[in-house]
Design brief:
6 copies of one chain form a homohexamer. Chain A has a single domain, classed as Arginase, Chain A. Chain A is of the alpha/beta class. In chain A, the strands form 2 sheets. An 8-stranded parallel sheet of chain A has the order 5-2-6-11-10-7-8-9, with helices on both faces. Helix content of chain A is 33%, strand content 20%. Chain A has 9 helices and 11 strands. The mean pLDDT of chain A is 96. Chains in contact: A-B, A-C, A-E, A-F, B-C, B-D, B-E, C-D, C-F, D-E, D-F, E-F. Chains A and C meet through loops of A and loops of C. Strand 1 of chain A pairs antiparallel with strand 5 of chain F. The structure holds manganese (II) ion (12 copies). The site of one manganese (II) ion has 6 residues of chain B, from loops. Chains A, B, C, D, E, F: This is Arginase/agmatinase family protein. Chains A, B, C, D, E, F: It holds the Pfam family Arginase. Chains A, B, C, D, E, F: Its cofactor is Mn(2+). Chains A, B, C, D, E, F: GO terms for molecular function: agmatinase activity; metal ion binding.
Chain lengths: 289, 289, 289, 289, 289, 289
């Protein structure tokens, strides 16, 4: 860059990417502009742009947590997706996360639809002996397939479960009878519905303290109430408030979080509140670690 | 329909309409694309389309109430309205509801402005000896006339009161001094203001249990907070949350609800949250009955 | 339907669908709400809804052509698509068109992305000994594959060409060097670029009169100037005017058009001009035949 | 007003309204925020606001006509309309125009739907022995009634014709068979369709020079192409260009124009191009007189 | 105005402005359509229009506070701003407020960006021996300069502090480390963060009762949660609810409030909820005094 | 970047920026996200983002000009602007262009408001003995000052003229009387109004061939018709068509163009047509050189 210029396409506060001097054990952002399997409204492919743009609205100092965003992290740009081929796109994401891992970088993925998480979780589940996915979503995403498709935003956590991870699902308020039956048939899926969070946040936070494996955090923006995050692929009334997300992020900041994603932001309007909120969640996470 | 097609203009999960085999004592949806008397912003004529479109975002299983939407109901399309003539439109709605009644069908009306309820309540008030209208709204809609007009979104409940129904008004936070005086001058209008609902939901629910007449449920989407339902004819800050609506719907599901409407959704954007929320309210109601 | 109701999303002027009395040799509308392979902006899955809604803005009498829309045609609703699987969706479309053919119905398809045409052209190319596809588009859509995908909005006319059809491409103003080379390597692809249409409409119309095979008409809305049709998957400056489209439709009305589609309308706003224009094109076509 | 303030919604360049010193034989703006009889999309009630706001984008000097907007004119605000009652609203408009006439003011009306013109033309047709209405519109608006309603945006020019005026309809491209029959059955309705204007502007301008009565100019914004004026109650592809409107306005500036209106601007977005264009038309008219 | 017209550009319920008979000790509205120093998204220059337009959605009777809006107040229109020169604009605002003061009018300013308050507070701080600014905002706005600029939306309260006022900052949830240090270094800035308001409203209200100087109330709309007020220059998740604003306004209504502003409404859409809420805050304030 | 990633906001087809190996005599893009002096609607600060995003809709091969975009060019990101201080921002732009010049790079600037050109033209006018600015705009931008401000979008070409450049103004259709007088008082400002371009493109093109100095090309997007480019700071009906822009760009491609800018794109919506058209203009320019 020149003396007076900056790269507006990078998440605010991110560091230059000098491959010879990358800080080990830091975080790296990738975008996955993919929305091909979306079942209701498409558009989350623009998530990586609008979320990055919204990141420029925050201060270095995070008054809420009384801390500064002073960790080193990188923005590696967007993955080359294959429109219409979810499996191929998942494989590219997986390869990219492996590359990042080899550089000592933990992935922060901006979606794009929730299928962006499949490749990430696949890669990480092979790196760590045991992995717990903390999954914030209005939906379980536990379908075995969706109209025959195994790679889909609706099957993410079923695939993750097949990779051997434990699941903690938080904010759930929509599910099929098949998904409910599947949850009952397994032992390692813990559920906190939206009203559980509203009424018993202490229980949720306590449960998270008991997780002793590395954690992958996956946040579908539809976990938030549509009042706050209206532009998502499947808006679902009755979601979490931002203060509840803040509490969960803070709880997790004391754990070994080896990667995270914020997905399903689906708007073409810069400055829209879903994008602002997605950016804030990443900003809060980076402020706390 | 052909083997592989469906009718996207019908509410999700609705049954085919085979007039020779209509299930008695079931529900039937009609749309009323009318907004001629709107006093602030028009546009609710598009409500029937956007609400139906939004109905495709829900699962058959309703995890919130642990029940499935397995009742038989029908979508009979939209009423032919007369732009600029509210009384004529009300008469058409009334005739249609009478037709439905003769088929053994209880009406679910998607507005359109609130005047859509006048014809429905008129028809039903003549079918049932006594009728209680449970009216969720930011406004009382009790004006005798509106700038001289007796058929108006602002006079709906005054007309209903003249038809002899009892009124329970819930969520009220805007009213004229004339409306307040009228309420005081009557004996059969019960009021729960927005803050009454926030603070004393138990009292509201208890009151509803005491209603022993058939109930007609009329929901003006502006009863919800504009954060959740911004696209209404008269946005009014300080409304109900979706969980409060859920509680009220559940309370009413134990009663004899002989018809309902969800009105004043006024947006031209498919997937907008007012439409999603209106669809969810109908979906919840159908899941519970 | 009841006495006073109608089905609000069916294309205006369409007939009831009574399977026992379907008029042979008439037209039938299907929607294909699919946009999974879109490479720039998604959203055309909403095309079938917004185009039907816009059809209610026209008169039965078409003053432009001094004729009335008095042909019998049907609206069969939308095809069940498979989000994320273009090939599966194409197969469903193909099956549906075969069903229609067996009923004596020529298909009018509302997209959705341009891949909706693949199944239609496949079915029709097998019904007719020789078929010419008149293809109005800013793009050639002649890629062999798109990032490895053979079923894609970008490969539609390459697949069609493989099915053995002749191609007349009108309005072209974007193309890859590979597509140009392919066109040169074949004998049966005729090209009229956007400026050819502006300057030499007579030549285009004359060419169309020489086509003596059955014709399939495929209209990508991006063939129009984005001033008129801004909401498409790949907006491309410099397109056709509506009067040019009218001239082309009229020329084709004297030919044996065995099916048509209007695709790539990508907006979530009812009444948006891309939708209005797409509806008008179908309306004009139906008025003329 | 204070030293440093101005009234932000008054039409730009309008004079203060000092009732004791009103300039005789000048023009006065009124708004009619009414859209109750709209048959397709409502929203033109916001026209008076958005058109006035857009008037602040122009220079005092009009380079196109090499003249300055130096005539005195007034902005009298908006008429009190009766939502849902077109006849009552027309009567109020008529009364207001009579008031203006008594002050020596010729009306410039900003709609609102086209029914705003009924009251104006009624009033003026009684003031002048003979009146010619030059009517720019995509539609004839000559229905005897619209679903039984005699006061409607669709019947404006039929009512005007009953008041005894001559009609010149320019830009027509949509009409019913009944309207066509009515035109044929009369002697004093001259028609120039959209393509007549495109091809034979000289003939249109010549015809206007032959009108020797006072002229009332009524401009439905849908006469323009939807590319330029997308936000109207009935968008109709294939309309006039702005240069054609300029030519018509200039031709009329040599005649005795005793009033004008610009109606059917239907958007809630400040700065939208329909509003800008409507403001420009009034600005051009005022620059030329 | 004529018999049947009103001025739509004035705040609803405002009185005519007859300079010879202005009611002393009343309130007067001015708009400041200025947004030149905005750091994230511009657009608040349209605030004065959209907030006034939204004021027409309220009843004269305020049921929430059981009072009527019966005080006399005036709408003096908008200040002439200097795009790109904040200091010059502040000086014009200051002059205007001085003019108002001489007329016995307390200012109610509709922004525009928050810098609109600088001139107002400067003028008032010179009129009153001691002044307390109650500042509702997500941000402290206490920067000494913003990229070198001393007149900026980000420095408003630093300038106010230099004018000698006491500050009560309510709703704060974003701040720089320099601002935090400055607050610590002073004695007369009291802070209630967003969560303080949620949890300890009693303490906030009690504190306000202890203020014994005249009060100036400055409300940055971003103090509200973006769910309610999404269209602001710097949307910041986690803000106040409307009931909290109501409580604060009521508390202040018992004090000597010598002026107020509502700033940072940044939308071009009439009827948008940020505008509605801004209008309601002014409406509530005027109802209570 | 990693193996599978790219930088999503860099202009499509731009080269990596390796400072040690920058190709001499090539072009470099900078964005200027500044809109503080805008007089009508703000928002052009988002131009650099939305124009870059739109650049991903084009093919490497440019079928219109039968050439490929194979020149090497760079995207250097955005300049650090000073909100509210136009002069300071101009100075930063000037410094940046000087830096680029020292690297052998000719600037392509994406605005932001038109004042972005001031610094560029200042820098270049000092590098070249004689410079001609070819200025495409609806407005002359020749005001000596704008409400006292010398650095403003409305004064750009007056400042340029002071720097000693010759001016060719193309597409003009709005101007003040002072600007007209100024043009008459000088010898080196050539004007082609919008209708001159429509009717006498040959004359315009011929004139451009006679320019024998280096040329700087400055394109205010409002030169285009608002049908094509609706989202600009000052929408002005009656502008150029895209084919006219194409012709002008091609004419200039035979000249020595030492820099260009495309300014005043003012939208927050990704994929909006103003942004697409601005990107296409840069794309065409880069294809032709
Ligand atoms: Mn979800
Ligand atoms: Mn999910
Ligand atoms: Mn209401
Ligand atoms: Mn109501
Ligand atoms: Mn195309
Ligand atoms: Mn195509
Ligand atoms: Mn019309
Ligand atoms: Mn009309
Ligand atoms: Mn703030
Ligand atoms: Mn502030
Ligand atoms: Mn300009
Ligand atoms: Mn300019």
């Amino acid at each position: 860059m020149l003396l007076n210029t900056y790269e507006p396409w990078k998440f605010a506060f991110s560091a230059e990417t000098d491959f010879d001097n990358i800080e080990k054990d830091s975080y790296g952002i990738i975008g996955v502009p993919f929305d091909s399997t979306t079942s209701y409204h498409s558009g989350s492919r623009l998530g990586p742009i609008v979320v990055r743009e919204a990141s420029y609205g925050f201060e270095n100092y995070n008054i809420n947590f009384k801390t500064s965003l002073d960790c080193i992290f990188y923005d590696f740009g967007d993955v080359n997706v294959v429109p219409g081929n979810c499996e191929a796109t998942c494989n590219i994401v997986e390869d990219t996360v492996n590359e990042l891992f080899d550089l000592g970088i933990k992935p922060i993925t901006i979606g794009g639809e929730h299928s962006a998480s499949i490749g990430v979780i696949k890669a990480l589940s092979e790196k760590y002996e045991k992995l717990t996915v903390v999954h914030l979503d209005a939906h379980r995403d536990l379908a075995f397939d969706f109209i025959g498709e195994k790679y889909s935003h609706a099957t993410v956590m079923r695939r993750a479960h097949e990779f051997g991870v434990d699941l903690v699902q938080i904010g759930i308020r929509s599910s099929s009878i098949e998904e409910e039956d599947f949850v009952k048939s397994t032992y390692n899926i813990q559920t906190f519905k939206n009203k559980d969070v509203h009424r018993h946040m202490d229980a949720v936070e306590y449960y998270l303290t008991t997780v002793d494996t590395p954690i992958y955090l996956s946040i579908d923006m539809d976990v938030l109430d549509p009042a706050i995050a209206p532009s998502v692929g499947n808006p679902t009334p009755g979601g979490l408030f931002i203060s509840e997300i803040e509490d969960l992020i803070r709880s997790l900041s004391f754990k070994n979080v080896v990667g995270m994603d914020v997905v399903e932001t689906a708007t073409d309007r810069l400055g829209e509140n879903t994008a602002v909120t997605a950016a804030k969640i990443i900003y809060d996470f980076l402020s706390l670690i």
